[in-house]
Amino acid sequence: MDARLNLFTGPTAGKALKHFMAAGKAIKESPLPAATQELVALRVSQINGCAFCIDMHTKDATAAGESPVRLHLVAAWREATVFTDAERAALEVAEEGTRIADAAGGVGDEVWAAAAKHYDEEQLTALVVLIAFMNTANRLNIIAQQPAGDYEPGRFH
Hints:
Layout: H1 11-28, H2 34-48, H3 51-63, H4 68-73, H5 85-98, H6 100-103, H7 109-116, H8 121-143
């Protein structure tokens, strides 16, 4: 499978993606825990069916020392005992923030309050920006049919 577009070559895409990737770097450097960032990025990508991002975030998380068990259980995090309460709260915000059309109102007050128990305002801001960032990245890759499987950890960091 070949991508429909090379999102890194054309002048318009190159300009836009330069800024987009800078936003991704700012999120990476935020006070939101790195493990939480990778779990959220992976879950958003699973929901959206973005194979490229699933490949990337699974490999980046593994390279950063994340356990295979936790990565395998992200798709079923509600039934898994390997996530902290804080991670569970972030994953729920990620799901409701990604399934906006399905949630009929976005992130519910109870879900937000649960996350606010574990994260300060700067971390919550980073979480919201990460969710929006991942949804955009997923859509770019899905529309362009970016193939998955050959990502090498750290390529975009």
